[in-house]
Specification:
Two copies of one chain form a homodimer.
Chain A: H1 2-19, E1 33-34, E2 40-45, E3 52-56, E4 63-65, E5 67-69, E6 72-76, E7 83-91, E8 94-96, E9 104-107, E10 110-117, H2 124-128, E11 137-145, E12 150-158, E13 170-174, H3 183-186, H4 190-199, E14 207-210, H5 236-250, E15 260-265, H6 267-278, E16 285-289, H7 303-309, H8 311-322, E17 327-333, H9 339-352, E18 357-361, H10 367-378
Parallel strand pairs in A: 13-14, 13-15, 15-16, 16-17, 17-18
Antiparallel strand pairs in A: 1-2, 2-6, 3-4, 3-7, 5-6, 7-8, 7-10, 9-10, 11-12, 12-14
Helix pairs in contact in A: 4-10, 5-6
Chain lengths: 382, 382
């Protein structure tokens, strides 16, 4: 009987697969196709189109025209190094995602098709892929923020084995402007990076907390129920203890600065800069990824001059480093539009003899870099 | 200082929003646009296109051609009743999602843009939207399945207030062929339906467990780490106790048939049919949505004849109804390709004098109906 049911289930799947609405449509345009020589062929079916082009970070010079055969347009990349790549077609001027590829990511309001190239275990592409390793769980929870006067959504990764009852250290991981509590999971590949680094023995098991950094909102645009976004009651930074209180009361965590890390990208790097100052001794590890580091916005003064104008902030920085954190890590790409702010940050830290580490790489203000920085920073923690 | 930081954060957001990669692109084609007369205008920018058409359940007769002005093509629907609608453009033969609309859903390998029409609190569209009500949390967990020999991913909704320590009843909610553990959340809008029904006082707070019903897989295609999907060690039905054991050991649940419900769509309706038979007395409420109800696949015999050939199954059904479940609920659309199987199921239940309830509506084997059935079934539980 067991075997019969199983057979029935299989046949049923095959039959129902024919019958269900979505599967009526055949998708015979294979894309992306990974070629033996390390190139990738992208295809789009557009039989009546005049012109098809593609943009993306897997395309030489960033954009290219496709060539047509039998109504299918195609483009083959150069040999690609291990990495997560994105691309998008334009068909006679209209924006088109690859219908053959279910992997897409949304950055604010913009969708790109994505694929991952990996050549060996542990390379950059490998870290971003799903593998048959022990997986952590991901929860989307609503926490109460008395400071902001609302329930707010956040994402929380718990490592494999968390349900066995042990306590774990915590990394708070903050997104940038335009992002939300999904950004580090989707564009940032956080669950994959953590699963893989832990499985490879390169990172300690930890809880990763990914809040929403927009103080006027309760959740990302796909989950928010607010009809109007008002003026927030206070700043996101001031509301941050609400997040830590929720994590403390709902999760089994190891306490103290040795077990608590904070990092973020762009606006979230600015949040990290200010939240760590305002909570000296709370975080043993801080990571500023392409961070927006200013005390005032409407000034052309250098960061050092801003600190001179804000002695209370300078005092907070002094306390932060007096608490002897394990790591104050600054990472930025050479072409990042926030590069100069980070030069000024390093100048200030140098002048004050506050210890930090610095990592500089190619590229600008892009998710490719933030995945790299998370992969590096996570290996330094706890 | 607090105010200063807040201002800086706001300005920073505005600036960073200009600078970040994705936001470079302006999206000035407004779509979908909800008009005062109850129609909706859909637009796609395709300046060089020869022909643009649209398909979807919001389009009269299912498809239409768009008209062009200044490179932007548009179509206005008729007056739409409250509902979740889908659509997709074709530009010179290429499949195109609405670049102006971040709401999309994936059904197996196929993406559609979606929007929701609601006219008043509690209507069908309202139930599927996010509102400013108390929200439940959603977790994606990996449970151990000794029966299938792997860790497998599932989604679990916990109702608002779950973290206060009380125990709740459990609904197991199963997807169809081609679906996965995300299907009921994305296409099914389960979190929104449950949040809203609970907030309206129309459903009891409950835990909703959404497993992956494909026995040869560990997770949906975006989360699976398996390189090869082998022959499963046993049937999904036989492995179902692994799911219930995980829920029992990891969640605060009310026990017993009075507090345990099972339902599913299509293949998941077949799973419900068989799992409830194999576990008589376990589920006090069963829901078969557009269900595939057979004991054997490779036969033209009626269900009654199949039961005659499988007396052990007939005995299981007898025990199921001897346990006096509160509800055995069958729902199907008039145009569903599984309609006849459900006629035979009702004939068998009638003949055996097993009590059930039946709901029949318009339409076929589509998510629109499954959202309706879940909304109705959830109000009958516990």
């Amino acid at each position: 009987m067991k075997r019969l049911y199983f057979l029935a289930a299989l046949l049923l799947m095959a039959f129902a697969a024919q019958a269900q609405q979505a599967i009526f449509e055949r998708r015979d345009t294979r894309s992306p196709q990974f070629n033996d020589d390390g190139t990738v062929t992208l295809r789009v079916k557009a039989p009546d189109a005049q012109k098809v082009s593609v943009i993306g970070d897997c395309i030489e010079n960033g954009h290219a025209d496709l060539t047509q055969q039998d109504g299918v347009w195609s483009y083959t990349t150069g040999v690609l190094a291990p990495e997560l790549y994105n691309y998008r077609f334009y068909v006679d001027g209209a924006e088109v995602q690859d219908a053959g590829n279910i992997e897409r990511s949304r950055d604010v309001r913009s969708f790109m098709s994505i694929f991952i190239v990996s050549k060996e275990e542990g390379d950059r592409g490998y870290l971003y892929q799903n593998h048959n390793v022990e997986h952590g769980d991901v929860a989307h929870v609503w926490y109460d923020s008395p400071a902001l006067g609302m329930k707010r959504r956040m994402s929380i990764y718990t490592p494999p084995g968390y349900d066995q009852g042990k306590a774990y250290p915590v990394l708070y991981l903050l997104h940038g402007a335009g992002g939300d509590e999904e950004a580090w999971l989707t564009l940032g590949r956080t669950a994959q990076i953590m699963d893989n680094l832990i499985a490879l023995g390169k990172a300690k098991p930890m809880i990763v907390v990914m809040p929403n950094g927009n103080a006027s909102d309760d959740a990302g645009p796909l989950e928010s129920g607010l009809k109007q976004k008002g003026q927030p009651k206070t700043s996101y930074e001031e509301s941050f203890p609400d997040i830590m209180n929720y994590v403390k009361s709902h999760y089994k965590i190891k306490k103290g600065a040795d077990n608590t890390a904070l990092c973020g990208l762009s606006m979230g790097g600015g949040h990290t800069f200010r939240i760590s100052m305002q909570n000296a001794g709370t975080f043993g590890y801080m990571g500023l990824f392409s961070a927006a580091v200013r005390l005032e916005w409407n000034t052309r003064k250098s960061l050092e001059e801003q600190f001179a104008d804000h002695p209370e902030a300078a005092e907070q920085m002094k306390k932060l480093f007096a608490a002897k954190p394990h790591l104050y890590w600054i990472a930025i790409g050479k072409d990042d539009f926030l590069f100069q702010q980070n030069v000024e940050l390093r100048q200030y830290l140098d002048k004050m003899q506050y210890p930090y580490e610095y990592y500089e790489n190619e590229g600008g203000h892009i998710w490719r870099n933030w995945r790299i920085y998370l992969s590096m920073f996570a290996q330094r923690l706890f």
